[in-house]
Write a structure and sequence with these properties.
This protein has one domain. It has four helices and two strands, in the order βααβαα. It has a two-stranded antiparallel sheet with strand order 1-2. It is globular. It binds zinc ion (ZN). Zinc ion binds next to helix 2.
Length: 89
């Protein structure tokens, strides 16, 4: 079955851990979701239709180094915002 997926979500997920390693902030599921959502708001979505489970294969086909640079920048900006707003332990 085909599904519509935002390729940028795949990239944010792919780079989130390596970007967060550089930051001394809370890395719980809630904060990660906040960072992911904020980063995606700053990125132009790129929708693709794909067979379910096949999204990574499709993502590699479309890979462009500029997307990675944009995604890493957006994650850093989002992390900076979230790190100033975290109010839970
Ligand atoms: Zn947290």
């Amino acid at each position: 079955m085909k599904q519509v997926c935002n390729y940028m979500e795949v990239l944010v997920e792919k780079y989130l851990d390596s970007v967060l390693e550089e930051w001394d902030i809370c890395k719980c599921e809630k904060c990660r979701k906040d960072i992911t959502a904020l980063a995606l708001n700053n990125l132009k979505p790129m929708y693709t239709s794909t067979e379910s489970g096949n999204v990574y294969v499709k993502a590699n086909t479309y890979f462009n180094p500029q997307y990675a640079a944009d995604v890493v920048l957006a994650i850093n900006m989002a992390t900076k915002i979230v790190s100033g707003e975290v109010r839970h332990e």
